[in-house]
TrEMBL record:
Domain AMP-dependent synthetase/ligase residues, every copy: 26-407
Residue stretches making up the AMP-binding enzyme C-terminal domain: 459-531
Gene3D superfamilies named in the record: 3.30.300.30, N-terminal domain of ligase-like
UniProt xrefs under CDD domains: Firefly_Luc_like
Species of origin: Extremus antarcticus
GO aspect biological process, one term: secondary metabolic process
MF (Gene Ontology): CoA-ligase activity
Pfam families: AMP-binding, AMP-binding_C
Protein name as catalogued: Acetyl-CoA synthetase-like protein
Length: 531
């Protein structure tokens, strides 16, 4: 039978921006909350953020944005990325972020799936989104650049700052549960349990619930002021809700890096005295390897981490040995634990509230308001429950952070949600009957985890099968070092044709992002077994 939540916290039903605004009494609204880590003189305060939001609301409306329209942001991390997101949502729009490494092929899928009406992109990576947007009929004037006006010259598109030239208007407001639950705020791409990336609909209610249950639990107040270097990509659920929502709501400083680079990350952590880190397994490996390279390096890494009170890792499993090695580099009072999260749960679902510690590789306990159950992954049905303790099963979850479904994808929605409202995650877990701690032990879903990113094998297979000389193909993940898993392709060539591994790699490389490349190799076979 399901394990029902033992603690319940009331979730506010306001629109996202009004709810963030309600938190303004808790901190100095004029202090910087968004800081450019590379140039800390560049900052945005909450006061300034709300000014930008109101200007962007007026600007987007003047540009023709209607309620429910989707705006795609195609960019690396940027100081202005969060306020753009907040302005989109405030105008009644829906934010979708895309990976800067996406090719025109991938962006075409993302823009079509999300039904984007506007695109805002960095000038240096404009070509792919521009090509995809124009093919889909998005007007040129609705393609804007995330850059200063002077840096837009020669690109043929206006700066996003032109949206600030239309005065200011109040954001879309509401305060009722049905509207909060049914109004999308973000679309976050996820492969779910299988298949091509799907647009997960994160509502105003989902995002408010995520912050409330993780960061404002009255039984577990956070005993330190949270300051983080934000180096994970802002288009991703791993950091998007925290950066775009929690920072504005709570006043926690976010020092923004364009992307992760080990030395700079550690230097910023030391310089700005970071107290909290959210990281993925490849970052853990990089930090541990840097420290182990020499006694001097270990001393330097320890010094960089000396202010850190709490570290959490997610996105992919981390073995206990590596967890222990990073824990040993942290101050004696610091805690390093793992969590479990999904795009479909609007980020964190299972967690250790600080200062609880763990050395067993657990992902903690589920946050309040979430009901869970386990089903037999081999039963082929939604209703063959097992457990709940000391028994492995597919994790199914229900609660206010769980999305209502994928945009315009009834097949996936019918497959992944059951009649009782539980989302079937595809992760195989068990709960220890003595400690009540949860462990992720396997996965049912057909996904490959590459450096923390989800890769759907059939997305790569689809690209391979589009090659005129390839008759059949299959892709699997192989475990390989620090990357975790890498995609390997098994290819059947059409009779009488010749295809080389170099050609296969080039074909995939021209169509898919770097982390989806067949770095695990290409194997030519006579046939693909079918079941």
């Amino acid at each position: 039978m399901p394990l029902l939540a033992k603690q319940h916290i009331t979730i506010p039903t306001k629109d996202l921006i009004s709810w963030c605004y309600d938190g303004r009494a808790a901190f100095d609204q004029d202090k910087p909350i968004y800081i450019d880590a590379a140039d800390p003189a560049r900052t945005i305060s909450a006061t300034r953020a709300y000014k930008y939001i109101r200007q962007l609301v007026a600007g987007f409306r003047a540009a023709g944005l209607r309620k429910g329209d989707v705006v795609c942001v195609h960019s690396f991390n940027n100081l202005y990325y969060p306020v753009l997101v907040q302005g989109i949502v405030g105008a009644g729009g829906v934010f979708v972020g895309t990976n800067p490494s996406y090719t025109p092929y991938e962006l075409g899928h993302a823009l079509k799936t999300s039904q984007a009406k506007f695109v805002i992109a960095e000038p240096d990576i404009l070509s792919a989104p521009k090509e995809a947007a124009l093919k889909l009929g998005i007007p040129k004037e609705r393609i804007l650049l995330l850059a200063k006006p002077d840096d837009c010259k020669g690109h043929g598109h206006a700066s996003w700052r032109t949206l600030l030239e239309h005065g200011a208007q109040e954001w879309e407001r509401f305060d009722d549960e049905a509207t909060a639950k049914n109004t999308p705020a973000f679309l976050m791409f996820s492969s779910g349990t299988t298949g091509l990336p799907k647009a997960a609909i994160q509502s105003h209610y989902n995002l408010i619930a995520q912050h409330t249950l993780v960061h404002e639990n009255p039984r577990n107040p956070e005993p330190y002021h949270m300051r983080r270097v934000v180096c994970l990509p802002m288009f991703h659920t791993a950091i998007g809700p925290y950066t775009h929502v929690s920072t504005l709501r709570s006043g926690r400083e976010s020092y923004i890096m364009k992307r992760f680079a080990l030395r700079e990350f550690l230097e910023h952590t030391k310089r700005f005295q970071m107290t909290s880190m959210i990281i993925v397994p490849p970052m853990v490996v990089a930090i541990v390897n840097a420290a182990s390279s020499s006694p001097a390096q270990e001393k330097w890494v320890r010094a960089c981490l000396s202010s850190v009170a709490n570290v959490v890792a997610g996105a992919a499993p981390l073995d206990q040995e590596m967890q222990a090695k990073l824990q040993a580099l942290l101050p004696a009072t610091s805690v390093f634990t793992q969590l479990w999260a999904m795009t479909e749960t609007t980020c964190v679902a299972s967690y250790f509230y600080h200062p609880k510690a763990d050395t067993t590789g657990s992902v903690g306990r589920f946050i309040p308001n979430l009901d869970v159950k386990l089903v037999d992954p081999d039963s082929g049905t939604h209703d063959h429950e097992v457990g709940p303790y000391d028994t492995r099963g597919e994790l199914c979850i229900r609660g206010p952070t769980v999305i209502s479904g994928y945009l315009n994808n009834p097949e996936a929605n019918a497959r992944d949600w059951d009649g009782d409202g539980f989302f079937h995650t595809g992760d195989i877990v068990y709960c220890d009957s003595k400690t009540k701690l949860w462990y992720v032990v396997d996965r049912k879903k057909e996904l490959i985890k590459v450096r923390g990113f989800q890769v759907a094998p059939n997305e790569i297979e689809g690209v391979l099968l589009a090659h005129p000389d390839i008759k059949d193909a299959a892709v699997i993940g192989i475990v390989q070092g620090e990357a975790g898993e890498l995609p390997r392709a098994y290819v059947v060539v059409e009779e009488g044709r010749e295809v080389t591994e170099v050609e296969v790699r080039r074909w995939v490389g021209e169509r898919l992002a770097r982390y989806k490349q067949v770095e695990g190799g290409v194997r030519f076979v006579e046939g693909i077994p079918k079941t």
